[in-house]
Design a protein that fits this description.
Layout lengths: L2 H7 L10 H15 L6 E4 L3 E4 L11 H14 L12 H10 L15 H5 L11 H9 L13 H8 L1 H11 L15 E11 L2 H21 L2 E12 L4 E12 L2 H14 L9 E13 L9 H5 L4 H11 L5 E5 L9 E5 H4 L22 E13 L6 E6 L2 E14 L14 E8 L4 E7 L10 E7 L2
Antiparallel strand pairs: 1-2, 3-6, 4-5, 4-6, 7-8, 9-10, 9-14, 10-11, 11-12, 12-13, 13-14
Length: 460
């Protein structure tokens, strides 16, 4: 019925504009809430959720207990639900959407009872396109049971492969995988509480116990966690998530608790509401961490390990705020060093920055390198020689000593080389005592008729 006709019949009719984006956001929040029952929760548009509860029902007293607990919590939150449990996604979806029986027991299908349960349901319960449903109705195929004894080849030829595939999935002949909202973590441990908890010390103590459980599992596989996720489920359905990352594989209980303490300090503490009745800890990413014998060398044992410091900085200020400088195999000085996230560098890279030895012939680089070379006006005795005088930032500097050149050619093997012209670098000391690193861009007469000068960095 159109809105105008409906209002003519019932003037007090309440109408609300549709907002699909907010509906989707609310459905995602409900899906996160349902992760208290299983980590495998998927959204089936437009307003359905699919939960894989295999191996989880015993925590709630069986399938009926799980269904009752879920329905009761969602009802208290203001939602009306239709919950069905079956061995297949197709059967459970059809039962929840199209079964109109009043007996709650019919919402739980016994093992192997999919065929009988679906027999009298409309073909639309197979989640088929509307055109296919209308075409089946034209041929008198209105119930799913009408398709059971039909030859598959004519059905596929007339109605497409989707019909047969959906029917097989609903009957359990063909598997139907789901795509959960959150990826399945390799290590998961959780703790449920008969009475909700809310104190920060209790939460950290529970996380420490769960870390100990994960550590035993990871120790068997000689692995350590690089990312730990603590999900705190509140009684009112809200979820608070704490995530920490480490620069190296870790399974030390005290160190992981210390990082979660830093995370709580950074997030200004907890917001427990009426308390948490479930805490789940998972290791989102893990790497190899074999057991090793400690070195008896005193110097080796006293060497400071800055990885824990990097982890604390990453938790407090953010992963991307703590950077590690790494040498790059590039000739242009501005690309010779790259900054990467220290938490992603890994233990193999977080070593001292390599410096040339005392007797090395490698050219020295300035301590301070400008982000962008600054143009200068320079006067040289010969076109290819060092400058005798240059003007930088409106001040004239006389050159007392110069060393060079160090020639850096364009990277011709790269498409669109960042260096269009050759550079000749000079280490220059002025009469005032300043030591600068400048270069001439372009070879005289071979690349350009008028080379330009730039200053690129400062020495100590």
């Amino acid at each position: 019925m159109g809105l105008a006709d409906a209002r003519a019949r019932y003037p007090a009719l309440l109408t609300i504009d549709a907002d699909p984006a907010r509906d989707q956001a609310m459905l995602e929040r409900i899906a996160e809430f349902c992760e208290r029952y299983t980590p495998l929760v998927a959204i089936d548009p437009p307003r359905n959720l699919i939960l894989d509860i295999s191996g989880c029902t015993h925590l709630f007293g069986g399938e009926a207990g799980l269904r009752h607990d879920m329905a009761d919590r969602l009802h208290k939150a203001g939602f009306s639900t239709r919950i069905a449990i079956a061995d297949t996604v197709g059967c459970a979806s059809a039962l929840a959407r199209y079964n109109r029986a009043q007996d709650d027991k019919t919402f739980i299908v016994a093992q192997g009872g999919e065929r009988e349960c679906l027999m009298r349901m409309p073909v639309a319960a197979l989640r088929l396109p509307q055109e296919t449903v209308e075409l089946l109705d034209t041929f008198g195929l209105r119930q799913i049971g009408d398709l059971y004894n039909r030859p598959r080849a004519p059905l596929t030829a007339r109605f497409g492969e989707d019909l047969v595939r959906r029917l097989d999935q609903a009957l359990g002949v063909e598997d139907e995988p789901i795509s959960p909202l959150s990826p399945v973590q390799p290590y998961i441990a959780e703790q449920r509480f008969a009475e909700p908890i809310g104190r920060e010390e209790d939460v950290l103590g529970t996380i420490e116990q769960l870390v100990h459980q994960l550590a035993r599992l990871m120790e068997r596989r000689q692995e350590g966690g690089r990312c730990f996720i603590a999900d705190l489920f509140r009684v009112d359905g809200a979820i608070q998530r704490l995530v920490i990352t480490t620069g190296k594989p870790l399974r030390e209980t005290a160190a992981i608790r210390r990082l979660f303490t830093e995370r709580l300090a950074q997030t200004q503490g907890l917001d427990p509401g009426f308390g948490y009745d479930l805490i789940r800890l998972s290791a989102g990413h893990s790497d190899a961490l074999p057991d090793r014998q400690e070195n008896l060398d005193a110097a080796e044992r006293q060497r400071p390990d800055i990885t824990s410091l990097i982890d604390r900085f990453g938790v407090r200020f953010g992963r991307q705020s703590t950077l590690w400088l790494q040498p790059s195999n590039r000739h242009p000085p501005e690309y010779a060093i790259t900054a990467i996230s220290a938490s992603e560098a890994g233990p193999a890279k977080t070593e001292a920055f390599p410096l040339p030895p005392q007797d090395s012939l490698s050219p020295l680089r300035p301590i301070r390198l400008f982000a962008h070379p600054e143009p200068i006006d320079a006067l040289a005795e010969v076109p290819d020689g060092p400058p005798l005088r240059f003007r930088w930032r409106r001040l004239i500097h006389d050159v007392a000593a110069a060393e060079g050149p160090e020639r850096i050619a364009p990277e011709w093997w790269r498409d669109g080389s960042v260096l269009p012209l050759t550079r000749d670098y000079f280490r220059v000391e002025t009469r005032e005592g300043a030591r600068v690193w400048l270069y001439r861009e372009g070879l005289y007469e071979r690349e350009t008729a008028r080379p330009h000068w730039f200053i690129h960095g400062l020495f100590a």
